[in-house]
Amino acid sequence: MQATWSDSESNQSSEKESNGTDLSNSKKIKINK
Fold this sequence. Notes:
There is one protein chain. By secondary structure, the chain is an all-alpha fold. It starts with a helix and ends with a helix. Helix 1 runs antiparallel to helix 2 (21-32). It has helices at 2-19, 21-32. Helices cover 91% and strands 0% of the residues. Residues 1-33 are annotated as: Disordered.
């Protein structure tokens, strides 16, 4: 599943990377769901 998430978030990662904190929180939430 992570492979798919990485692909989808690959583009969003750049935007969230600025906040950094959001990136970690978003991934944790998506992984849990």
